[in-house]
């Protein structure tokens, strides 16, 4: 019942993000880049969201990507506070912003099921929670989509992707994921939920596993996208 503080500027109000900060970073005048509808990379100078050259040359296993923000200051701090500081309250905010991005995306088909990117047992025990699942739960409620926390599993512990580059990222997640029950996946549109998309290798490998088990379509729903050079 008490007023909360804006997570960015500290102003008191009813919401986690005050109206001025929401307008500055997520409003119509915030200067959001036009993005590739497949991988969500910014398209410099583009007037319409068309697939980028990389996606045209080598189509990813996933079919579309929806992001709510760029991974840049000061929003990157919120991601770090959630993932490494246990600020689970941010997960609800990320879900709200992702749900709005999903509603605003032209012609995007809603998934039938949400699949949070799974953590390995060791990482889950160390962190105490899966940030992707914490985002997926409120996101599912906001969009009216069921969440399947165990639709996929991480069968191989991996090094944090943020510590790797290039081919090492691809090798790190090459055989990391499995689908325990093909019947839940076959013929369905699956939405993969995560906090950050960098190189896209984790989402690529997870989408490829889902497609091999019969998924008809895979859409990434990610709060923040890193700049192209990262």
Description of the molecule:
This protein is α/β, with parallel strands linked by helices and 230 residues long. Helix content is 34%, strand content 17%. It has helices spanning 19-26, 53-57, 75-85, 89-104, 121-127, 131-143, 166-172, 201-212; strands at 4-5, 12-13, 64-70, 113-116, 146-147, 153-154, 177-178, 189-197, 217-225. Helix 4 (89-104) packs across helix 6 (131-143). The mean pLDDT is 88. It comes from Pseudoduganella buxea. InterPro entries: ComF/GntX_DNA_util-trans, PRTase-like, PRTase_dom. Residues 127-224 form the Phosphoribosyltransferase domain.
What is the structure about, briefly put?
With 230 residues, the protein is an alpha/beta fold. It is built from eight helices and nine strands. The termini are far apart.
């Amino acid at each position: 019942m008490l007023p909360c503080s804006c997570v960015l500027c500290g102003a008191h109000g009813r919401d986690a993000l005050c109206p001025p900060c929401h307008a500055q970073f997520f409003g119509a005048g915030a200067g959001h880049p036009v993005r590739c509808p497949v991988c969500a990379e910014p398209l410099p100078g583009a007037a319409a969201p068309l697939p980028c050259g990389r996606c045209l040359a080598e189509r990813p296993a996933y079919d579309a990507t929806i992001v709510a923000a760029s991974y840049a200051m000061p929003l990157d701090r919120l991601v770090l506070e959630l993932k490494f500081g246990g600020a689970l309250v941010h997960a609800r905010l990320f879900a709200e912003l992702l749900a709005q991005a999903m509603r605003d995306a032209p012609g995007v088909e809603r998934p039938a099921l949400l699949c949070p990117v799974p953590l390995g047992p060791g990482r889950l025990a160390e962190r105490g929670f899966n940030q992707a699942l914490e985002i997926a739960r409120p996101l599912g409620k906001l969009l009216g989509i069921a969440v399947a926390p165990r639709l996929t599993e991480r069968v191989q512990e991996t090094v944090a992707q943020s510590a790797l580059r290039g081919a090492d990222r691809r090798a790190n997640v090459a055989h990391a994921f499995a689908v325990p029950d093909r019947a839940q996946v076959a013929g369905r549109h699956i939405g993969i939920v995560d906090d950050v998309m960098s190189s896209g290798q984790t989402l690529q490998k997870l989408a490829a596993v889902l497609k091999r088990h019969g998924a008809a379509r895979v859409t990434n729903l990610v709060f923040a996208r890193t700049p192209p050079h990262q």
